[in-house]
Amino acid sequence: MAALILFYPTRQGLSDKDSVVISFEKGVISAEIASSTLKKYQGLSGRETLQKDTGMLFVFLQPSYLSFVMRDMKFNLDFVWIDNNVVVDISKNISAPQNGEAPIHIKPTNPASMVLEVNAGTIERLDIKVGEKISIQKQ
Fold it and tell me: What are phi and psi of 124, to 5 degrees?
């Protein structure tokens, strides 16, 4: 039995096949897109590392209080919660679960339609702030 994976574009016009450059006031991040249910579920789970100034941008159809789980993560992450190209919340240095620990669940304080996962420390290094406007360009 063959599996069918749909790479449908979101309302932002982005699909799993796309990659983008996200520009902040003090730097840029190159990001893979996660728009399908399968790619959102997998996320960065199981990866050993993430290169500097790269990440994964999760895109959703509408803003909501999204919940993310650090399932099978091997390194710590920062989360940038975005709506209408504005940073609406940040979550810094979320720990990957250690052996035997339950994975941490993360939620924003404001609804978001996109979530950027990057290496822990990126928010501090790029001085990303709530309220900051960003731009997103397809690569």
Answer: -65, -45
Cα(61)–Cα(9) distance, rounded to whole angstroms?
10
Structural domain count, the chain: 1
Indicate whether this model's pTM tops 0.90: no
The CATH number assigned to the domain holding 25 equals 2.60.120.1140
Please work out, in degrees rounded to the nearest 5, the angle formed at the alpha carbon of residue 40 by the alpha carbons of 39 and 46: 70
Closest by Cα among 91, 83, 70 to 111: 83
Task: Residue 76: give the domain boundaries.
Answer: 19-138
Q: Report residue 15 as tokens.
A: 């699909």
Q: What is the mean pLDDT of each run of 10 residues along the chain (139 residues)?
A: 41 72 97 89 86 94 90 92 97 90 90 96 98 93
